[in-house]
């Protein structure tokens, strides 16, 4: 784990693809949730619907599954 202020310049200036930003959008009354993944260089977006809960473990497992489906060169970092 690296502090966001310490991430490499190549991530900061969007020089190469493979560096992602993640967020969690939770619906009304916490009834649903979607993980958003945005690739910093290409601005490609992936949305991952979370069935059931949105605990840290559920989000982690969804990220592992989703990021694991990408080619290795597109799995540089996740912020």
Automatic annotation (TrEMBL):
- What InterPro entries does the entry give? Transposase-Integrase (IPR051917)
One cellular component term from this protein's GO annotations in UniProt: cytosol
Cite a single GO MF annotation. Answer: transposase activity
Q: Name one GO biological process term.
A: transposition
Entry protein name: Transposase, IS30 family
Biological classification of the source: Bacteria, Bacillati, Actinomycetota, Actinomycetes, Micrococcales
């Amino acid at each position: 784990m690296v502090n966001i202020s310490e991430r490499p310049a190549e991530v900061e200036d969007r020089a190469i693809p493979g560096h992602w930003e993640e967020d969690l959008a939770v619906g009304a009354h916490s009834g649903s949730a979607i993980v958003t993944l945005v690739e910093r260089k290409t601005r490609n977006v992936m949305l991952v619907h979370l069935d059931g809960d949105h605990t840290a473990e559920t989000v982690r497992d969804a990220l592992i599954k989703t990021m694991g489906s990408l080619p290795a060169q597109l799995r540089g970092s996740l912020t």
